[in-house]
């Protein structure tokens, strides 16, 4: 049981809620949340008994914050934040350079014995030639080198280097599928909230999603229990991109891949954006179920529906039309099978 936990990225939904839940654990004496900006009033309330320290993990001051906190466990939840107001260059600097500075501070701390990294299944990339399902040991054919996915690849590389230098520290890497939920504000949720959703002509990507409550449950167990290693974390089942668009009641417009990315960027506004050609990957979660003994409560479809209903999206297409169409598709697939 950790005594003192330091959590990065507490101005985002996951970081703030995780800090609050850890602070409520009887065996945890202190939780310190770190971010460059203060959490909103609602997120600050969710942090409960956790303390907030305004600090930039890119700055050497983070070493002082880590030492003064006396943390024996560090949760780097800010490496893949769901908030997307950062410009691309700023996001890269915060994630990659910030991670390097944080890891250097952990390496110099004699008290740190556990590191938990919130990563993403986007490190596998998305290529039509890829396998249908990725395991933790699958080497991507064409790993992403730019954007948020490229940042995640770089961050994981630095974490592996830290693990080699500090073999006495338990390192857990959690590769989360894309989070969707009523209170998740991300490039993906804004993409599906747009009235017109550009999709890639001739390709209906398979989406594996994750409800934030399941993400928080896995993070909590990674902190309170010892599960070193790399783990895929995703809900059971998949939705095709077309099914997701219809369930959200949006109007899907198939266009060539490059144009789809441009249109998605225009609809999403500033900050980081969804690139429709990069959507579509499914990760195997056998290792998570075996080692953690954990199965997500929400399926991919349930998580997406909770996002749609919770955000109060008004459908442009009648829901009964969608349900009737999906029933016909299911019957057709059953006859083919």
Automatic annotation (TrEMBL):
A matching Pfam family: Epimerase
Gene3D superfamilies: NAD(P)-binding Rossmann-like Domain
Highest taxon of the lineage: Bacteria
SUPFAM superfamilies: NAD(P)-binding Rossmann-fold domains
Domain NAD-dependent epimerase/dehydratase: 5-234
Signal peptide span: none
Region (Disordered): 127-153
Record's protein name: NAD-dependent dehydratase
